[in-house]
Amino acid sequence: MTLRPFHLAFPVHSLEATQHFYETILGCPIGRQTETWIDFNFFGHQLTAHLSPAPAEGVATNAVDNHAVPVRHWGVILTMADWQALAERLKQHSVEFVIEPYIRFQGEVGEQATMFFLDPSGNALEFKAFQQDTRIFAKAGDRPQVS
Q1: Known Pfam families for this protein (predicted)?
Q2: Residue 145 is inside which H or E element, if any?
């Protein structure tokens, strides 16, 4: 199967704040938009922010590597260089992290760089990176591949 872009629609309380965050801070170009929604090119995927007057629900979390990870979240797996550049960009824009950029599961099969932060409507985003893409779906018993 050929990998294709995904589409995700999500609620926001302010299109103006959402547009600023996704376009200016994350660098996601805008596609179509109306007075009630905006499409973003989210690293090659289509995100649609829909204006929703209902308040966001509380953020449920699960413990992962001694951190409280928001259960509902989305993001992109970047190259390590792009992940590092995004982490620096977010810091320059004074984005508050839910989980600061760090290396999770160090020395284990699933070792990965990760960071979590919220958009202006409280939607949780995770960006991660692996040293080797072959490790993205690796299981605990898998042997490392030699490159």
Answers
A1: Glyoxalase
A2: none
Distance separating alpha carbons of residues 125 and 115, to the nearest angstrom: 8
The verdict on residue 129 lying in a domain is yes
Mean pLDDT of 28-42: 97
Q: Could you tell me which residues are beta bridge partners of residue 117?
A: 97, 125
Q: CA–CA separation, 35 vs 71, rounded Å?
A: 30
The alpha helices in the chain, defined as continuous H runs, are: 15-19, 80-92
Compute the distance between CA of residue 42 and CA of residue 6 in angstroms, rounded to an integer: 10
Residue numbers of the domain that contains 43: 1-53
State the pTM of this model.
0.88
Instruction: Give 136's Cβ-side CA count (13 Å radius).
Output: 9
**What residues have CB less than 8 Å from 90, skipping those under 6 apart?**
25, 97, 115, 117
